[in-house]
Amino acid sequence: MTPNPNPEQDEVLPFDPNAKKECIWHEDGIEDHFGLHKFLSFPVPQKKILDNILEAVGKTPLVKLNKIPQSLGIECDVYAKAEFLNAGGSVKDRIAVRMVELAEECGRLKPGMTIIEPTSGNTGIGLALVAAVKGYKCVIVLPDKMSNEKILTLKALGAKIVRTPTDAPYDSEESHIGQAFKLHKETPDSVILDQYLNCGNPLTHFESTANEIFESLGTVPEMVVVGVGTGGTVSGVSKNMKKRGNCTIIGVDPAGSVISSKGENSGHHFEVEGIGYDFIPTVLDMNLIDEWEVVDDKETFPMARRLNKEEGLLSGGSSGANMVGAMRQAKKLKKGEKCVVILPDGVRNYLTKFVSDDWMIEKGFLTAEDCKEEKIVPTAESCKKECFGNYDPEKDGEDDFQRGEFVPGIPKNFSPLRSNIMKNILEAIGHTPIVRLNKLPKSLGIECEVLVKCEFLSAGGSIKDRIALKMVELAEEKGALKPGMTVIEPTSGNTGIGLALVCAVKGYKCVIVMPEKMSKEKEVTLKTLGAQIVRTPSHHGHDDPASHMGVAIRLLKEIPNSIMLDQYRNAGNPLAHYENTAEEIIWALDEKIDYVVVGAGTGGSITGIAKKMKERIPGVKIVGVDPEGSILADPSIRCTHSYEVEGTGYDFIPAALHRDLVDEWIKTDDANSFYTARRVIREEGILCGGSSGANVWAALQVAKGLPKNKRVLTVLPDSIRNYMTKFVDDNWMKAKGFEVPKYD
Q1: Between vectors from CA 261 to CA 260 and to CA 263, what angle results, nearest 5°?
Q2: Of 335, 355, 375, which closes a domain?
């Protein structure tokens, strides 16, 4: 780029008349008062191993919608751009990376500096993630109305938070913009990148988002529907599409925003986050938008819920607004024509907002009657030991649908990379990136390479998506699972979410039975996917009729036309990892791996990965991770106790776990698990869950003392979404007796 002769000049306020001089487009780039920023080449070469989590930003798939458009009589093909599958969870990750890159290139941003940004949350999360990886300090200023989940995520990434009144005028000192610029003046060595006028905002969507859409479809779609907030997404995508051919651009604006009226109408409060404003951002080129759709909250949130429940797309509130706009406009298109709608973020940020029935009722978007459902309770008569029959979770399943064949070699239809266009969201299960850890190993003096497989970037948010899909497919192939049936499953949550997602897409009913200790976040995610939930006391042993396993078996006898796939005894569990997870690892690492470290719960992950690894890579060592209080590492010790980490360990040896494939076991405790998970988030920018912390801690123990030429890989099973009110929250940590580390 052409450097600015005076890179230290003061930033311009986004509503200052001088801001109009920003974002001047040229044939080879975009110009602002810091210089000319040339377009990056596309596509970016695909790496097998990512140097850091920032390289997992972008490259999100287009997913065909199969239920909602058809229910509304729409004939054209509608595709959703699933931006919630980005590393930080939203479309704003793209602009965070690009704005920081431009600031570094022109000398505005140097090591040791502080990034200050006014935002509605997602840009803040993206910047906090970039700052965590690159080592900058980060201060995020956002209005009070923004969700607590955004605050917890920002804090976990190490950002400092400043809240401002939601109703403060945008041009006042009390607004989030005013407070950010005030802090900037008071904070030495700080910079405001300012998404409202930073040309890196539309630039990245011109360079990547739009090019990905074109590459996926192989043509320019007839219509693209984009929610408008800062205006970067719609401006960058529109500029690119209109340059290529005829494309109708639909801007979506929430009722209460002034953007679609070009500031002529006065605004009012609205609940949806991330779109709409009370001023016209500089980066928004209004001339590129062909038509506007104004959508109110009462339409937005029910549609967002429909995306979750009917299409299995775990997207956020503004995705609902965009979808409403798309459904209105797509009626104009013919069969064979294409409409693309951007889904900006995911449900993680809204678990206590539109995803919650209580919030929807409180805000008047639903009634208690709307949310009423018949409670599932097993009969008292079935509460007897004999209700189990011959059931034993330590023995292989006896039903034909629970059997699968482990065929050596690369599976016939195996593909290591995620498709960029999909028939449905189930195709976004697996194909997760492998990322190198940098700061944690270095802080411990570790010389060898430590890698993590980011399973939380799967469609449903965890490694269990893989087994859910495989078990359902096996049952369908064997004729045991047919349309109209109900899938019942006892689970600690993630297998349930995976199954609920698969059932949502395929049209099955779903009943999930899980212990009370499992997080509320898992429960609301399950419900938004349409599953019915049954909770059981956590203290019951697996063979107790009141345990989650006992209740599931009882319900199987009582609910007509139902099936229990049974992850503990189903060969589809390890088979999913044998055929895919392990193959992805082997492909990415070119068969060069010394240690694979995997947490054990049902045992499917470690068994499937270990079996394939030992067939293909002689000398590889498999290390199992087991929490204190579980017996998996040593079955001779049948004395168990409770522990807080979820999704790992058991009080029995599941049939899916083949202990003979494990070379070594490492025991972890809650403190190691949660402290390490918090470090991975804060220092590596990887938004993983508590059991991921256990696996990383164990992997680091294995890596200590190994030479540079050795390689250790571990699996990160799920994300922070399931634990926003647990280890991610300082108050929960303190209440459970875990010391909360203090940082500068």
Answers
A1: 110
A2: 355
Strand ranges in 674-710 using DSSP code E only, listed in sequence order: none
Is residue 314 in some structural domain?
Answer: yes
- Amino acid identity for residue 94 in this structure: R
Q: Specify the pTM.
A: 0.96
- Cα dihedral 545, 371, 318, 252 in deg (nearest 10): 150
User: What 8-state DSSP symbol labels residue 544?
Assistant: S
Q: Are residues 249 and 126 in the same domain?
A: no
Picking from 324, 309, 314, 315, the residue whose alpha carbon sits closest to that of residue 343 is 315
How many residues appear in the chain?
A: 744
Query: Are residues 157 and 300 located together in one domain of the fold?
Result: no
Q: What is the CATH number of the domain that holds 285?
A: 3.40.50.1100
Among 59, 155, 464, 726, which one carries the catalytic annotation? 464
For residues 563 and 413, the answer to whether their CB atoms sit within 8 Å is: no
pLDDT level of residue 212 (50, 70, 90 thresholds): very high
Q: Report yes or no: 312 and 427 within 8 Å, Cβ to Cβ.
A: no
Q: What is the pLDDT of residues 441-493, one digit of tens each?
A: 999 999 999 999 999 999 999 999 999 999 999 999 999 999 999 999 998 78
pLDDT at 10: 53
* In contact, 90 and 126? CB cutoff 8 Å: yes
Phi, psi dihedrals of residue 188, rounded to the nearest 5°: -60, 150
Same domain for 455 and 594? Answer: yes
Give the angle subtended at the CA of 716 by the CAs of 435 and 654, to the nearest 5°.
Answer: 145
Helix, coil or strand: residue 521: helix
**Residues 138 and 231 placed together within one structural domain of the fold:** no
Among residues 30, 48, 200, 209, which one has the least CA distance to residue 130?
A: 200
| 149 neighbors 120 (Cβ within 8 angstroms) | no
Band the pLDDT of 5: cuts 50, 70, 90: very low
Written as six digits, the tokens of 184 are 């900037």
Indicate whether 450 and 344 sit together in one domain. Answer: no
Whether the predicted pLDDT of 551 surpasses 60: yes
Q: What is the DSSP letter of 337?
A: -
Side by side, the strands of the sheet bearing 160-164 are: 160-164, 137-143, 114-118, 190-192
Which of the listed residues 192, 220, 244 is the one where a domain comes to its end?
Answer: 192
Same domain for 248 and 349?
A: yes
- Both 124 and 188 in one domain: the answer is yes
Question: What is the rounded average pLDDT of the residues 313-321?
Answer: 98
613 and 662 Cβ atoms separated by less than 8 Å:
no
To the query of whether residue 464 is one of the catalytic residues in this protein, the response is: yes
